[in-house]
Amino acid sequence: MRAVWAVFKREVSLYFRSPIAYAIAFALLVFLGFLFNGFVTQSNGQFPADATAIPGLITFLLFLIAPLLTMRLLAEETREGTLELLMTLPMSEGAFIIGKFLAAWFYYTVLLLLTVVYYFILQWIGVPDQGTAFGAYLGAWLYGGAVLALTMIWSAVTEDQVVAAFLGAATVLVLYIAENAAQAIASLQLTSDAMANFVRELGLQAHFGATLAQGIIRAEDILYFLFLIVAALFITTRIVETRRWRA
């Protein structure tokens, strides 16, 4: 745990000293602010306040945000030759990877918490459903952790940050549209419904948009995101271990 904490503190300090991190936060909050203002103006009190709109937008934008947050975590270390140096320190590859992941998830959590201000504004102008809001934000938090872990894999695979970001974004988009792919498979009727359901269950939206974003908290959805996190971190650790073995 001491090694994880050391890596975590180092990475968090790098995030909050990085202009890219502040640029991401600024762009995201400005974009969400414009959309939220338009949403409130358009509603004009005609329908109940929707507290799930902002978490839903954040999960959609994660195909851009997550790769930008993770592309440098391992790719930059590899390109600059510092990864091999760090690997000589008395810590396991697992502790190294977990520390970096937790730092990225912490920064994302800060971004997510900043958007809670919109929920309080909705409370002031309307009566948002508290249970639905809690489920949506919990889902967005778990969703973000899973996506960050997945995009870290590509940062370990390549030392080119742009390539890592592109492959990470593509991976997230594929998992995002898995539900649409399942509908297309079902409509073609070339396979059984079991195949379509399997593809759907692999996707991110099947475990967020249909359940958590509606305030429906199911153990299977929470376990799905936790499994993605653990599996992705395991793969990333194996990649880094292979690199050390080759060195």
Structure description:
This protein has 11 helices and no strands. The protein is mainly α. It has one domain. Helix 5 crosses helix 11. The longest helix is centred in the N-terminal third of the chain and has 28 residues. It is globular and about 60 Å long. The protein starts with a helix and ends with a helix. The model has no long low-confidence stretch (mean pLDDT 85).
Give the low-pLDDT segments. none
Helix/strand-derived class? mainly alpha
What is the CA-based Rg, rounded? 19 Å
* Number of helical regions: 11
Total number of distinct structural domains: 1
| Binned strand content | under 5%
Distance between the termini: 26 Å
**Average of pLDDT:** 85
At a glance:
The chain has 247 residues and is mainly α.
What tags apply to this protein structure?
single chain, 11 helices, mainly alpha, 247 residues, globular
Write the layout of secondary structure elements.
Elements: H1 2-15, H2 19-43, H3 53-80, H4 82-86, H5 93-114, H6 116-125, H7 130-157, H8 161-176, H9 178-188, H10 193-202, H11 219-246
